[in-house]
phosphoglycolate phosphatase
Amino acid sequence: MPRTMLLFDIDGTLVDTGGSGLRVLHDTAAELFDGQLSFEGIDTAGRLDPSLFAEAARKSGFDPGPSDHDRLRDAYIEALDRVLASVDTQLRSLPGTLDLMAELAQLVADRNGDAPVLGCLTGNYGGAARVKLRAAGFDPGLFTVSVFGDEAPTRPGLTEIALQRYEAEHCHAPDPARVVVIGDTPHDIDCAHAHGCVALAVATGRFDRQQLTEAGADIVADDLSDASVVLDLIR
C-alpha cells in the first residue's frame, strides 16, 4: 500500500527569514553585476528562484551572459549562509514546526514500512533550502524526497518530480490522495491539485485563511502549532 508523503514548502511554512533571503539576493546581484541587476519590487511568494532571476533581468534591462545565473546562485547561497549564521539574523522557525518535525521524525523511526515519507518541495535553490533549514534548526536529512526550484520550470513540475522520486525509491507509484503538499501560498495549492494531491495551506505567510480557502485549499490552518492537523492525515 502506498505510504503517505508529506511535501513541505520552506519560506512562510517552516521558516520566516524576515526578508533576509531577498535582501541577500539583491545585495549579491548588485555587487556581482555592478548594480545592473536589481531585485527591487520582485514578488517572491511561492515563486521559483530561477524565475526571480529571469524577471529581475527583464525589469532591469540586464542581458545575462551564459554563466551569470549560475554565478549569482552560487554567490547568493554563500552569502546567505553567512548572513543567517550571524547573531543578528531575523530568521526563525514558524510556530509549532520544530515540534512537528520532531514528532514526524519519531514516527519515521518507529513505524518502519508504513512510516510517512517526508519531503521538501520548495522554490529555493537546493543550497539555499539547506542553509535556511539548518539555520532554523531543522535537519535537511529528514526530508528523503526533496525537489528544488531549479529542477523544473514550474511549481507543478516540482510536484511531478517528487512523485517520480517516490516511485523510484519505493518501487510503486504513490497514491496522489495520500500525498500532501503543505505550503502558504496559492502556488502551493495549485501544484498539489495539478497532480490530484491534497493541499494543506497554512496562514503563516502573506495569505490569510480566507484567501487560501478561496484559492481552493483542501485544509487550512492558522499555523502548524497543532500537530494533529498533519498527524491526522497519516494515522
About this structure: The beta strands are 5-8, 15-16, 92-93, 117-121, 145-147, 179-183, 198-202, 219-221. The CA atoms of residues 74 and 127 lie 8 Å apart. The two ends are 14 Å apart (CA to CA). The mean pLDDT is 94.
